């Protein structure tokens, strides 16, 4: 068996463990595809949502955007009130892998760009999110990936040896930043590939 080279496994959440997309909600609210795409790319944009990941409250976000686009106020409000409908469910292969790691006593951590408010909502709906050894949530820390600070918070708060800590994220630029912080990191493509990456580092999964 390959000699074990990592002690801890750190997970991004959206796109790795949680299947999340605004399309899941707005496909119902805005059936017209062109109209839906226009709303999600020019009004309730990913950049607007990212401000909540950085710590802005949802009340402030909805109020500000609705004042700019009053004709879309109902759809804007739904991004907040209907947020859970954007979370289609767990990515099962990853959920199974996390469960296996925990059963073997291997520490698991969450490092995620996530609104602090919605993180609590997600944990209520998906109990697996409550079982991490530790968590670093951008909205709580008010700093986001791929900035170096959030990786340093993870390493220092939980006293991790970065070279022996494995991180997976579906965004390549977050993986590049993790490696720059000293973590052993790989881009997430699917659960089977992740399992193979962990086995190559000596974990019995």
Written description of the protein model:
This protein is of the alpha/beta class and 205 residues long. The protein has eleven helices and seven strands. The strands form two sheets. The protein has a five-stranded parallel beta sheet with strand order 5-4-1-6-7, sandwiched between helices. β4, α7 and β5 form a beta-alpha-beta unit. α4 runs antiparallel to α5.
**Terminal-residue CA separation:** 12 Å
Topology as a string of helices (H) and strands (E)? EEHHHHHEHEHEHHEHEH
Give the low-confidence spans.
none
Radius of gyration based on Cα positions = 18 Å
Strand order across the largest sheet: 5-4-1-6-7
Number of strand elements: 7
Largest sheet: 5 strands, parallel
Structural class: alpha/beta
Mean pLDDT: 97
- Total of helices: 11
Topology:
Layout: E1 8-11, E2 18-20, H1 22-29, H2 33-42, H3 46-53, H4 58-68, H5 73-81, E3 87-90, H6 92-103, E4 108-112, H7 116-125, E5 134-137, H8 138-141, H9 148-157, E6 165-169, H10 172-180, E7 184-187, H11 191-200
Parallel strand pairs: 1-4, 1-6, 4-5, 6-7
Antiparallel strand pairs: 2-3
Helix pairs in contact: 4-5, 6-11
